[in-house]
Amino acid sequence: MASTVLLMAVAILLIPTTLPPIPTVHASTRTITLTGGVASGWNNSQPGPPISVVQGDAVTMQLFSGDSSTHKFLIDVDHDGAEALDCPATDPCSPTFSQGSPTSYPFTVNFSPGTYTYYCIFHSGSMSGTFVVQSATAPSQDFSIDSNPTTLDIAQGSTASTTITLTSANGFSGTLNLTGTVSPSGPAISFIPASIIMSSGGTATSTLTVSAPGGLYSSVAIGNYSVSVKASNGTLSHSTTVQVTVGPSNPSPNGSASLPVTVLVATAAGVIAAVAVTVFVLRRKSK
User: Is the preceding omega at residue 193 within 30 degrees of 0, hence cis?
Assistant: First the structure.
């Protein structure tokens, strides 16, 4: 019994008091080149080019001097300006460098996501730029869908159109297929184009045409309809709705209702047949 208690005590002592940390997301390795000049700024730009990285990235700054001055690169993490004496304790900063002696400065982006300013410590008034740190947990790629206009009024025997707009979000790219459902059934719909290739950060459009056939035997009933438009790549899908109102056919210019061609043809055929019968009867009587 005593030996069992002793073994349990030893086991407890061997168990670590803290659990190992969860591994972080694998960071990227990036190399960024900057050439500094008192008069020209960073990379001949004032302010310098914006720099965007992800938290956890391993960054190497390749730093050159474009003039005869001595420079020193710094990221103002604590937002207290380039002149504060907290480099490198708080603010990452490079060794000094001058013309003819470029320097390589590696560091890890271990500070919080946000927007910071990078400077030359010695010439902060003319050599500065924006340094953006993004979260390592990037939002999922997605897209949105909209229609304009969202309502259509159609007379029997006519058509109307609306524009379907697709917008990339968070770098989404790929092929989206458009389909539509009409409720209740009646009007016909079509898309031009029905398949759209989306580019990252871009927008694309398709034209939705709604038709309300008119005729003696095939007219779409007067009333309200709903068209549900869906865009999908097989994994992601989003929908928008277009409301459609079908009204009576448009009157003819003289104010009377226009007749379908089938009715006019049938009427003309009936008149010809009546004339033929009348001529036949008159001939019979004249004999």
Answer: yes
